[in-house]
């Protein structure tokens, strides 16, 4: 079962890349021909200046259909020129093809590609990078901070768009107090509670003053996105602080328009009211970026709304992080902490991009949310927390969402 879970997760990761880079793929024909045999070849290149490609690296070819079902997996070793070749591979316009290479314990994926009818050869290129513990190339391209008042306090969601401007993968750049290694760290106010983070729990380490990300950061602009939601005690006139652990290019504070909360401070520019795709009206306040180590403070004014009926809130453990089994309060935007923080990303980031980029980001965020749910479901089944029937039913329901939203139209 574990091997099947790993394979399925890899296919979903390729699907996530596909949504980010080719959200408008050509639809496949409804009259699909029987698969024929073809050849997949390509090269692995090292994107780090002066880097080389070892001929003993293993390349894995993945083939899956538009319903995200695996069709073939093949392994091969690179030759002396860094090239690989797979013969007798099933070809179909309904299939997707991608290769993965693990180098210095980091796995790199090619962009998924398709074949045309009667095509018999396909070339795929994959780039690997050297690894560094130097995080000086890391930049927060954008930091979005969503603030909202509820009866339980100030609900905060911080969304980070992270870039790696170097030509090396940054990994294990930090040694934490307990000796554990991490790649990035993010500061949170000391009285933050009910922390919920996007992506599976294994990616994060909770720290007394924030959290750390243990995953490798590949080179590129806007290469990863992450979000954190938490709860703060609220007092009228209090200061809220964003601390830039890394150079931050732009910061925005986002509040519900017409609500009880107001935000003021030096350097804020009112960028107007925008409507999210679900109809929520939000006011966007822009702020210039900040150098690493700089704190940006704003002042908050308002009054907490009255408590909601007990049936609509779950605040049995208001001081416990949600990844430690407590359910966070769920009014308004903060509900996304329980549903997947990618949904917040979907609703906010599109302000900063063109329509084409908006569509790609929204699809990517939605796909990432479904992938996370499937990964957590697989983990629950592996631990024996779900029966086989319940696991199969829930997994098929999530797969149906993938097919409905992301499989090409007939």
Number of strands: 24
For the largest sheet, list the strands in their spatial order: 15-18-10-9-20-23-22
Largest sheet: 7 strands, mixed
Low-confidence spans: 1-8, 20-30, 311-362
Question: Please, how many helices?
Answer: 5
Terminal-residue CA separation: 32 Å
Helix and strand content put the structural class at: alpha+beta
Q: Secondary-structure element order, as H and E? A: HEEEEEEEEEEEEEEEEEEEEEEEEHHHH
For the CA atoms, what is the radius of gyration?
Answer: 23 Å
**Overall 3D geometry?**
globular
CATH architecture of the largest domain: Sandwich
Average residue-wise pLDDT: 80
- The level 1 CATH classification of the largest domain is Mainly Beta
Secondary structure: helix percent: 10-25%
Question: How would you characterize the overall build of this protein?
Answer:
The chain is 19% helix and 39% strand. The chain is α+β, with helices and mostly antiparallel strands. It has 2 domains: 36-131, Carboxypeptidase-like, regulatory domain (Immunoglobulin-like, Sandwich), CATH 2.60.40; 138-351, Sandwich (Immunoglobulin-like), CATH 2.60.40. α1 (2-21) packs antiparallel against α4 and α3 (342-348) runs antiparallel to α4.
């Amino acid at each position: 079962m574990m091997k099947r879970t790993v394979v399925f997760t890899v296919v979903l990761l390729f699907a996530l890349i596909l949504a980010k880079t080719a959200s408008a793929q050509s639809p496949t024909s409804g009259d699909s021909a029987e698969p024929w045999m073809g050849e997949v070849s390509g090269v692995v290149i090292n994107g780090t200046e002066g880097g080389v490609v070892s001929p003993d690296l293993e390349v894995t070819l993945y083939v899956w259909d538009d319903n995200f079902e695996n069709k073939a997996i093949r392994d091969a070793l690179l030759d002396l020129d860094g090239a690989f070749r797979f013969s007798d591979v099933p070809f179909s316009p309904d299939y997707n093809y991608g290769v993965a290479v693990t180098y210095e314990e980091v796995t790199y994926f090619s962009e998924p590609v398709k074949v045309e009818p009667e095509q018999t050869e396909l070339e795929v290129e994959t780039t690997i990078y050297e690894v560094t513990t130097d995080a000086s190339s890391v930049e927060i391209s954008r930091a979005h901070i969503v603030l909202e008042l509820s009866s339980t306090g100030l609900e905060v969601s911080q969304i980070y768009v992270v870039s790696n401007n170097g030509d090396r993968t940054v990994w294990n750049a930090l040694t934490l107090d307990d000796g554990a290694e991490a790649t990035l760290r993010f500061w949170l106010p000391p009285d933050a509670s009910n922390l919920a983070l996007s992506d599976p729990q294994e990616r994060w380490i909770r720290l007394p003053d924030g959290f750390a990300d243990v995953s490798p950061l590949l080179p590129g602009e806007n290469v990863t996105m992450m979000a954190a939601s938490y709860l703060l005690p609220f007092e009228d006139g209090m200061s809220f602080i964003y601390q830039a652990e890394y150079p931050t290019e732009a910061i925005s504070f986002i509040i519900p328009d017409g609500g009880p909360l107001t935000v003021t401070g030096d350097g804020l520019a009112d960028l107007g009211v925008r409507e999210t795709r679900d109809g929520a009206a939000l006011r966007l306040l822009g702020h210039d970026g900040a150098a690493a180590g700089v704190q940006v403070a704003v002042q908050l004014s308002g009054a907490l709304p009255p408590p909601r009926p007990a049936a609509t809130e779950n605040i049995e453990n208001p001081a416990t992080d949600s990844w430690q089994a407590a359910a966070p309060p769920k009014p308004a935007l903060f509900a996304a902490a329980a549903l997947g923080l990618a949904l917040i990303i979907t609703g906010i980031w599109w302000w900063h991009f063109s329509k084409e980029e908006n569509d790609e980001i929204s699809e990517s965020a939605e796909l990432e949310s479904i992938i996370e749910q499937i990964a957590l479901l697989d983990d629950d089944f592996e631990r024996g927390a779900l029966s086989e029937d319940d696991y199969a039913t829930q997994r098929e329901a999530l797969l149906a969402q993938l097919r409905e939203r992301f499989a090409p139209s007939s």
